[in-house]
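Session log. Operator J.P. requested a structure for one protein chain; no other inputs attached. Running the standard single-chain path with token output.
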Amino acid sequence: MADRLVAWLYDTPVAALIRGPEFRIRLEWRPEGIERWGLGSPALSVGLPIGAPAGPRDTRGLDFFENILPEGPALERMAALAGVRPVDTYGILAAFGRDCAGAIMVLPDGDRPGGNEGSGYSPMTLGDLQRVIGTLDVTPLAAAPERGFRPSLAGFQRKALLGRAGDGTWQLPSGDAPSTWILKPDGPHAMAANEATCLRLAAACGLPVPQADLLDVAGLPVLAVKRYDRQDAPAGDIPVRVHQEDGCQSTATPPGLKYEEQGGPALRDFAGVIRNFGDPRDVTGLLRRTTFNMAVGNADAHAKNFSVLHEPDIPAVRLAPLYDVLSTIALELSDSVGQPMRADTHLAQRVGRQADIRKVTTASLIDEAVSWGIRRRAASAVVTETLDQVLAAIPATPGDARVLAVIREQAERISRAG
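Structure written below.
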């Protein structure tokens, strides 16, 4: 394993990662990154400014890079493949840091982005796609070290990271070619059609969402989502990575604290990030998204399910498109012996001091917005308009009829509660 790793951002080395005791990571800022963006720049993270002093007990470097990794069984399997423990963020990134969220690439010291001559994409057959989806428990994220494709992506749900040609053909990335689509197959609980329905409804309400397709792979529903942190390039060129960070990274929070009740960020903390480092009008956009999440019954909208996009050479951020949105209250759940279970309605982040999504009202949403600094009258207008848009869009939105019925009931309840 390399003695040190280097985090690259837009083909510029920004920080060296050095293994510390107790699985810590010590950062050394690279002069190239300081020269390009300047001391104190939020280009890498608003929660970890470039050049920020980092003492021996400072965990911000570890927290930021740990947020790049997946959670649960995928993390355990990646650690096993890397020959390290799941708590060894450095060791896992050394093996799987070449294709991460945003524009970051974590490479062994001495390597450069694009230095892999085998970078590119190869077409997949339907059989190839079935095999990739069917082996995600063994090879998380469809990683393929033999092709030089060593990706990492946050989240608990199983995912495959692939490319896609203009004609819709799925592709296997090789070397430093970035994945451009995320495929999420159904697991123990049916989620693909639910999320596809919510994304279509969000688009009908005018909210920015990534392109998404609901696939049938040998009878298994699979949601395919185009990565918003990738940009298409001219024909024949490798797609471009676009930098982003999630709500835990931007607030310097470890991934284990993504829920507010565990000590993680509140919605107002993320609103503060947007107000202080982006366009204040995006705070209103955050209110629209929060209202939409409550209307569809998404109780699991935690800090890692909000992100900001960074401009390459301007110290500013903007809200990323809506993602990982589904009606959790509409999930049909069962326990280990097949008995039906009620969906958890406890909120990942409180809304107007409410901790249960069944108790959120229009007043809760307005109170939450006021705590961000939005005037009450303006907040009321945004909340009311968004709820009206959801209810008006449901009849024409294609998708799971049962999920849409649950959403209608939830949105009407919030509107009536006032």
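Operator note: The longest strand covers residues 12-19.
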